[in-house]
Structure formats: C-alpha cells, structure tokens
Amino acid sequence: MTDLSLPTPAPATKAMTVPLLDLKAQYQTLKAEVLPVIEAVCESQGFILGPYVRELEAKVAAYSGAAHGIGVSSGTDALLLALMALNIGPGDEVITSPYSFFATAGTVARLGARPVFVDIDPLTYNLSAPSVQQFIDESCDFEGGVLRNRRTGGRVRVLMPVHLYGQCADMSALMSIAQANNLKVIEDAAQAIGSEHQGARAGSFGDIGCFSFFPSKNLGAFGDAGLCTARDPELAAHLGILRVHGGAPKYYHSFIGGNFRIDELQAAILCVKLAHLDAWSEARARNAASYNAAFAARGLSSTVTTPYAVPGSRHIYNQYVIRVPFRDQLKQYLQDSGIGCEIYYPVPLHQQACFASLGYQTGDCPHAEAAALQTLALPAYPELMAEQQAYVVDTISRFYA
Q1: Longest CA pairwise span in the chain (Å)
Q2: Is 2.30.30.40 the CATH classification of the domain at 28-274?
Q3: Closest Cα to residue 82, out of 46, 53, 110, 50?
Q4: What is the C-alpha to C-alpha distance for residues 126 and 78, in angstroms, rounded to an integer?
Q5: 378 pLDDT exceeds 90?
Q6: Which residue, among 222, 207, 304, 296, has the nearest Cα to 265 in the 3D structure?
Q7: How far from 312 is each of 127, 167, 201, 236, CA to CA, in Å?
Q8: CA 208 to chain centre
Q9: At 1, is the pLDDT very low, low, confident or very high (cuts 50, 70, 90)?
Q10: CATH superfamily ID and name for 277-400
Q11: Is residue 133 classed exposed, middle or buried when 0-12, 13-18 and 19+ CB atoms within 10 A define those classes?
C-alpha cells in the first residue's frame, strides 16, 4: 500500500500536547530514589564495574530467566560483543530481520560478516520462521556440520531474531531450525526486556540475549547502556573478558576485545528503575488495550490495524504501532495537532544504501517493505493520561472521517 492523494482536514486546534515519550514525567516519580544512588556512586568514586554493575547483572539475568548477565555500554555493543564472542567474521553469515534498527545488521557488517535478510511475519513484524526455513531449503547446503549459502559460499553460522516492539519472535520454531542446522542464536531483545513466549522470557532462549537500556526503552538508563545474557558459564566468562579489551588477567591479552563496559552510574540508576519495570510495562499494556477498544468503538477497525499480540505471550509494548492507509499524511496531521508519533522503520535494512552491494532488490522482502510504508507508532508510555489518549484517538478519527 502506498500513500495516495487524500483530502486532509485542517489540523485540530491544539487542545493539548502529547509527546511520543515523556521521560520528565517518569523522572519526577523516581527523583527521590535515584538521586541518593547517584550520590552514593559519586561519594565512592568507584565508577567502573563496581557493586551496582554486579547487582544489575544478577537481577536482570534472574528477571530474564537467564543464568548470567554481562553489563555493557549499549545495546549496539551488546550485539557486537555477542558476535565477537562467537568469533563471527569474514566469510560468515548471519540470518536476521530486514525490519529492525540499523544496529542489528550494522554490527554484523562491522565485523566483516554478511547479514542475510529474511522476510518478517506480517502480523507481529518479527522474523518469520517459515521464511527462514525456506531460505535454508532453497539456498543452502548442510555439509560436515556447516550450513553453507550456495550463492555466496558463506558459512551461515548465526540466527539473529529481533523481538520487535516488545514482543518475542516465534522462538520455539526458530530454535528448532537453529538446532537442526547447527546455528548459534543471538536474540536481539533491545526492545523486549520482560516479554515472554510460551512462558519463557526474552534473553533466555538463545546462546546470547542482547538488551538495550537506551532512555526510550521500558527500562531506560540516563544515557547509553546495555546487557548480554548467556546460559553457558564459559561463554558468559568470555563475554566478560572481551568487554575489557580481552584482558584476563588485566594487561594480559589472549583475545582482542573492546571497551564495552557499562558505567557504574548507569547500573545504579537501572537497579532503582528495575523495581518499577513490571508496573511500567503493565501500564503500557493497559494503554494498548485502551487504544484497541477506542479504535473499535469509533468504527475504525477496518482502517486502523492495531498491534497483534500472540495469544499466550507477554507483549510489553515498547512501541504501540498501528498500520494505516495514508500513513505519511496521518503522521503530518498528528504532528500538526501537537501529537508525537514516529515511523519505526521507514527503510528496511535490505534497502539501505550501505547494503546495496549485498544485491537485494525491491520485492525480496515484501512484508518488511509494506510495513515500512504503513506503520506508525503512537504515544503509549506509562504516564500517558486518559485525556491525552482520548485526544490522540479523536484526532485520528477526525483525519479518517
């Protein structure tokens, strides 16, 4: 679906401003808890890999159902570190989604490996297990325990699903595919801390789970921060060594790593915020349910496609993303009416200019391409007030009237 001409009504009188995210509102509720831990770190003058880092690692691992946690400097560095720990490099290929934030594929390419883009499920926007299986069946040979891409000759070594918008990919199907083809699994769970698939949480399925604590996430730091989870103690230890330039003990290097340490200050703040995470995620889910009901009540169900939540899963709604006709005009109309909204993501990764050499063409991932033209994120943060949400729905209803 493409945006065609549409008679657009005049923008609404700005009855109120509704930001896409309001971190100031959240901070006011946390200020009394956060400032003392910041002061404690400052008083200690221990800023690198201190007790708050160890506390955060243990708590996030337990929260995610994983055995080990390794705090890192960002969600991007979590992905990069995970790939490095699995020794991914030139000649290797990683199957992943074309519909994600750039870091998902950028970290693969940064190591000289090749991202292999496979289309998404049109309902959840997550990596499609049938499409992964189709790629393997049609394009690969499995010889000597190695899956090899016939077209490129590359070794397909990793499957990297993305848990987009706060909902787990179909990990039962994807893990079965990975196990049958001797693939390591890295979960890009940047948007999905606490989300669940069949009773298990994001970050507990694969060899390594990668989380982001970017400020806009459900669990957001006061800057960049991230974390890796792992099941295997040896792999977790290796991640910890690579995090500090590959040195173990200090100044003795058997590996080449990087400076991927999480800041002690960020860890301290996140320890405070983690206690509130479930309440925030539940508030987002309530806001999502309210939107769903309001759009249905306005008779917009055939126009506004609301997010699909897999039955029996836990969707944490890092974003509340609708699918609509005339998306670009609606986006402008909402912004003119004082309502924050965003497109996640306007250009699928296989169509990015920097990946042109991979040879993908328009039409190779049609579901991802369609989603890029039709989806729009609305405000759904925990502190969103009922009257603000009603204003968003009223404005969208007016646009399509």
Answers
A1: 68
A2: no
A3: 110
A4: 20
A5: yes
A6: 222
A7: 18, 11, 12, 30
A8: 14
A9: very low
A10: Aspartate Aminotransferase, domain 1 (3.90.1150.10)
A11: middle
DSSP label at residue 256: -
CB atoms within 10 A of CB 155: 16
Structure tokens at 251: 């100044």
Which tokens is 224 given? 């960049």
Amino acid present at 100: S
The C-alpha atoms of residue 59 and residue 294 are separated, in whole angstroms, by 37
User: Residue ranges per domain, the chain?
Assistant: 28-274, 277-400
Q: Which of 194, 205, 266, 201 is nearest to 231 (CA)?
A: 205
Q: Which two tokens stand for residue 261?
A: 């340490």
Average pLDDT over residues 170-187: 98
Place of tokens 């700005």: 14
List pLDDT tens digits, range 3-13: 556 666 766 56
pLDDT at 2 over 50: no
CB 108 within 8 Å of CB 88 = yes
Helix (H, G, I), strand (E, B) or coil at 185: strand
Beta bridge partners of 174: none
pLDDT tens digits for range 259-310? 999 999 999 999 999 999 999 999 999 999 999 999 999 999 999 999 999 9
* Beta strand pairing call for 184-188 and 208-212: parallel
CA distances for 134 relative to 32, 119, 140, 351, angstroms: 53, 10, 10, 21
Q: Are 163 and 195 in contact (CB under 8 A)?
A: yes
The per-residue pLDDT of the chain, averaged, comes to 96
